[in-house]
């Protein structure tokens, strides 16, 4: 780097003294650009990013001999420039060549060359900055941990994030990112922890997500739609949280195939329908199973007795009918069982006995257990549902997608073609009027209807206000460096 810097005046002088007219007019900035390209070629970046895949504008006055720190400097300066609010001056010391001294930056010896330092962690959690994530973030190929939790980032996650070859942990939660699921994240080869909860992502969840060897997947509190992919049975994750979205359809039977690893399964507050598959009982390692706040129907399967390690089982606020199985209430590890706000009519004595226990809670209010219990629904409220229970043995097994295909719209008939009126018979030639006959104008041509208007461009939401001071709870079952975002109602 220092060699290029010292050769710059000589290079500019030589170029300006050239006899070529095109070279003689070369400015110092243009000559500096040549030096920059040479620097990039020396770092192996010029060919890596053809056609300005990532715009490179390295400050030639910064003397950084370590090529890994040089590219990290470029990325961090681009990130700083992309911020329009930094009320706590978090990036105030992001100046000069000592990248490893920047706030939030942790350097370690490179795994590729122990004699060189590399930026391994960028932790901006709760910095309260506002801005967007620039595409130059993809230059940080040594980065293993990227924490952006609890800021005011907006816009989209750039596709260049796929270039972060060492990224292991991505926490972009509690921001205002928008758009569909960031598919480029699925191309990060070593990613294990994905947390994009509390944003404004929308659209379907890609089936490829659950095929990746992720250990933790947090997508809750977005606006994801469609159904749960059948590939969820292939997941190796210990934690899957999809709560507070707009997911519909049913829970695939393949969920039982995730028994070896799944520890926490949280799908609360969506629009899931159908029956709870008996394969759920195969999740013997699950400690948390929460499908509350959906539209699940039918009976509670006794097969849930297979959840031998479950500590929290929440089936509340659904449309379940029938009994609360004795086998479920007898689960030894179960500390919190809730079946409230359903249409259940009976419960085993083992379930009622939980109400007197100090360490085992049981919630069964707002069901249809009879008028002798003041916390139950009225007979008028129960009758429409209880009299027409769903027989899960006759319900079509859940696949994905579970929604019916949208019928194609009827083809609009072509517009009628106007027929010109018949021509009048020709008049006999007149010796007085010798003017030639004038042909009638051609018939009008009916134009096809105008095309439908294009949808308006997406409106990027303004960044959210700074997060309030809250107590951050631990992530139970899986430990990571990044804390979860503030605990909003319902995960």
Automatic annotation (TrEMBL):
One of its GO terms (biological process) is cell wall organization. InterPro entries: Leu-rich_rpt, LRR_dom_sf, LRR_extensin-like_regulator, LRR_N_plant-typ. Keywords: Cell wall, Cell wall biogenesis/degradation, Glycoprotein, Hydroxylation, Leucine-rich repeat, Repeat, Secreted, Signal. Residues 1-24 form the signal peptide. Residues 406-491 are annotated as: Disordered. Residues 406-429, 438-471, 482-491 have a biased composition (Pro residues). Residues 74-107 form the Leucine-rich repeat-containing N-terminal plant-type domain. The keyword Lipid metabolism does not apply. The keyword Ligase does not apply. It is found in: Secreted, Cell wall. This is Cell wall hydroxyproline-rich glycoprotein. It comes from Digitaria exilis.
């Amino acid at each position: 780097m220092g060699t290029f810097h010292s050769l710059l005046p000589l290079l500019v002088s030589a170029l300006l003294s050239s006899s070529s007219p095109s070279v003689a007019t070369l400015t110092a900035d243009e000559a500096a650009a040549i030096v920059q390209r040479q620097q990039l070629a020396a770092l192996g970046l010029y060919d890596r990013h053809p056609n300005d895949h990532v715009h490179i504008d390295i400050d030639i006055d910064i003397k950084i001999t370590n090529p890994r720190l040089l590219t990290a400097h470029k990325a961090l300066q681009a990130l700083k420039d992309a911020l329009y609010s930094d009320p706590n001056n978090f990036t105030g010391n992001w100046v000069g060549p000592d990248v490893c001294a920047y706030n939030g930056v942790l350097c370690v010896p490179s795994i590729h060359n122990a004699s060189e330092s590399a930026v391994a962690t960028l932790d901006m959690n709760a910095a309260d900055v506002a801005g967007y994530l620039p595409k130059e973030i993809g230059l940080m190929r040594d980065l293993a941990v990227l924490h952006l939790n609890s800021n005011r980032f907006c816009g989209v996650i750039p596709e260049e994030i796929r270039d972060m070859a060492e990224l292991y942990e991505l926490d972009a939660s509690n921001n205002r990112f928008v758009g569909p699921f960031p598919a480029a994240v699925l191309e990060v080869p070593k990613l294990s922890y994905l947390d994009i909860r509390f944003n404004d992502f929308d659209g379907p969840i890609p089936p490829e997500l659950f095929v990746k060897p992720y250990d933790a997947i947090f997508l809750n509190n977005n606006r994801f739609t469609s159904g749960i992919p059948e590939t969820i049975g292939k997941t190796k994750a210990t934690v899957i949280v999809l709560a507070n979205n707009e997911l519909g359809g049913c829970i695939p039977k393949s969920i039982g195939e995730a028994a070896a690893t799944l520890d926490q399964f949280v799908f609360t507050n969506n629009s899931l329908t159908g029956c709870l598959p008996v394969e759920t009982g195969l999740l013997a390692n699950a400690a948390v199973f929460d499908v509350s706040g959906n539209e699940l129907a039918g009976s509670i399967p006794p097969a849930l007795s297979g959840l031998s390690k479950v500590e929290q089982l929440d089936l509340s606020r659904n449309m379940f009918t029938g009994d609360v199985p004795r086998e479920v209430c007898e689960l030894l590890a179960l500390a919190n069982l809730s079946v409230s706000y359903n249409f259940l009519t009976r419960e085993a004595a083992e379930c009622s006995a939980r109400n007197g226990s100090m360490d085992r809670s049981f919630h069964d209010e707002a069901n249809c257990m009879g008028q002798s219990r003041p916390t139950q629904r009225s007979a008028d409220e129960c009758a429409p549902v209880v009299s027409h229970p769903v027989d899960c043995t006759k319900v079509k097994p859940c696949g994905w997608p579970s929604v019916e295909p949208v019928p194609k719209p009827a083809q609009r008939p072509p517009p009628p073609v106007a027929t010109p009126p018949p021509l009048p018979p020709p008049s006999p030639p007149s010796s007085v009027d010798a003017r030639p006959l004038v042909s009638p104008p051609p018939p009008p041509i009916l134009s096809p209807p105008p095309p439908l208007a294009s949808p308006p461009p997406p409106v990027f939401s303004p960044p959210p206000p700074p997060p309030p001071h809250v107590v951050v709870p631990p992530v139970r079952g899986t430990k990571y460096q990044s804390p979860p975002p503030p605990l909003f109602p319902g995960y």
